[in-house]
């Protein structure tokens, strides 16, 4: 039996019911609970599967298929100890996440949150030539930290806006000339970029961006994060915004989400979205179908295509 532990787009839900002996968990389930006889579970990143949850799963379960690229919500070591395989849904989120990264870059650079607030308040007065000025992206330098599929898709879109690309990656890419200029040293990228975008794959909860890193960024630079909230020291970013050292920030991910540091609400130059990187119908359907493909392979005795084989 397949337990569907997260609400699905209609087309994906229909397929699950047609192809599998599927049962749906309550929509408000945040901690995984599965009945006896369940062989596979399909869930999303909003369900935490910690060691205690894994220990409580029935012995029949052999697969947890998450509709997400990230898998830091699942205790992989506990799953491995129980012989439970874990799959994710890579690749299909690339375009949607790159699009929201560009939304955040544009919104932070052009002060979209402040402009929206002005219109909500009825506008009412004209602005002088030296007021409410944002950053024009054409001719600026975008520094991409993590040049995987999503980072590459962001670079492709940013180049259409006339931006020059720098990137920092674990390794220099073979197609270096197409990606931009490689920066082996993160600090070098931070010092040269007008906009910095985090696009690191996988999981992470140790801050990469601390007070020292934000201090190395150009005065007035923009910081954008669509990777992981845990990669950012919130105190340091808030201080950089409050001091005016940074010109703005665009954030789609947060430490401890769906809770987040509400001090960001007091920063008008911070444009915030509630982890919506993959939130298009096309992408969510593709994620669901890919997860079901992994379930189908497992139930048929084949190796699922998207096995997660490393610890978060």
From TrEMBL:
GO terms for molecular function: glyoxylate reductase (NADPH) activity; hydroxypyruvate reductase [NAD(P)H] activity; NAD binding. Residues 35-308 form the D-isomer specific 2-hydroxyacid dehydrogenase catalytic domain. CDD domains: GDH. It comes from the Bacteria. Pfam families: 2-Hacid_dh (PF00389), 2-Hacid_dh_C (PF02826). Keywords: NAD, Oxidoreductase. Residues 103-277 form the D-isomer specific 2-hydroxyacid dehydrogenase NAD-binding domain. InterPro entries: D-isomer_2-hydroxyacid_DH, D-isomer_2_OHA_DH_cat_dom, D-isomer_DH_CS, D-isomer_DH_CS1, D-isomer_DH_NAD-bd, NAD(P)-bd_dom_sf. One of its GO terms (cellular component) is cytosol. Belongs to the D-isomer specific 2-hydroxyacid dehydrogenase family. This is Lactate dehydrogenase. It comes from Paracoccus laeviglucosivorans.
């Amino acid at each position: 039996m397949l337990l569907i532990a997260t609400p699905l787009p209609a087309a994906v839900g229909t397929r699950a019911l047609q192809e599998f002996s599927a049962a749906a968990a309550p929509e408000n389930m945040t901690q995984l609970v599965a009945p006896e006889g369940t062989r596979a579970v399909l869930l999303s990143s909003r369900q935490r599967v910690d060691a205690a949850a894994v220990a409580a799963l029935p012995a029949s379960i052999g697969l947890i298929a998450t509709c997400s690229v990230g898998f830091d919500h699942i205790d992989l070591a506990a799953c491995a100890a129980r012989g439970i395989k874990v799959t994710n849904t890579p690749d299909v989120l690339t375009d949607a996440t790159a699009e929201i990264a560009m939304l955040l870059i544009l919104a932070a650079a052009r002060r979209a949150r402040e402009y929206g607030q002005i219109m909500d308040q009825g506008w009412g007065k004209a602005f002088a030539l030296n007021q409410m000025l944002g950053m024009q992206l054409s001719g600026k330098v975008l520094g991409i930290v993590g040049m995987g599929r999503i980072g590459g898709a962001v670079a492709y879109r940013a180049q259409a806006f006339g931006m020059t690309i720098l990137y920092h990656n674990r390794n220099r890419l073979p197609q270096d000339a197409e990606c931009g200029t490689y920066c082996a040293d993160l600090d070098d990228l931070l010092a040269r970029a007008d906009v910095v975008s985090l696009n690191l794959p996988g999981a992470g909860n140790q801050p990469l961006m601390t007070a020292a890193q934000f201090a190395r960024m150009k005065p007035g630079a923009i910081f954008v994060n669509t990777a992981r909230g845990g990669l950012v020291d919130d105190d340091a970013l808030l201080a950089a915004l409050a001091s005016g050292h940074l010109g703005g920030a665009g954030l789609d991910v947060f430490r401890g989400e769906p809770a987040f540091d509400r001090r960001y609400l007091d920063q008008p130059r911070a444009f915030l979205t509630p982890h919506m990187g993959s939130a298009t119908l096309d992408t969510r359907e593709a994620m669901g179908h890919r997860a079901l493909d992994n379930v189908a392979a497992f139930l048929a005795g084949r190796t699922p295509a998207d096995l997660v084989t490393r610890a978060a």
